[in-house]
Design goal:
Layout: H1 3-24, H2 32-40, H3 64-95
Helix pairs in contact: 1-3
């Protein structure tokens, strides 16, 4: 197996480990600023409406399996985009 494939597989394994830790250990943690704002009675208002509010799929809040699948999916998407951009940059440098 070529070294670049070992790096890709190793990077994805590390990403999966981070997703597992994030979903199973940190997924239920309260955000510190939310807790402090609640103590002071500060109202919550949205600056913008993200596609995944509170980092969860609407309708599947608290579902660990859904959070895990979304985490793996976005990790794979970022990995593919990163290598695509790298491929395009090296291709452009080779031509110029």
């Amino acid at each position: 197996m070529q070294d670049r494939y070992k790096i890709i597989i190793g990077g994805f394994v590390v990403a999966v480990i981070f997703v597992i830790v994030g979903v199973f250990l940190l997924g239920f943690a309260n955000e510190t600023l939310d807790v402090i704002a609640g103590l002071f009675g500060a109202p919550e208002w949205e600056i913008w409406f993200p596609p995944l509010p509170d980092y969860e799929v609407p309708g599947f809040e608290g579902n660990i399996l859904t959070n895990f699948v979304v985490g793996i999916g976005f990790s794979a998407l970022i990995l593919v985009l990163t290598f695509l951009i790298g491929w395009l940059v090296t291709r452009r440098r080779a031509k110029g």
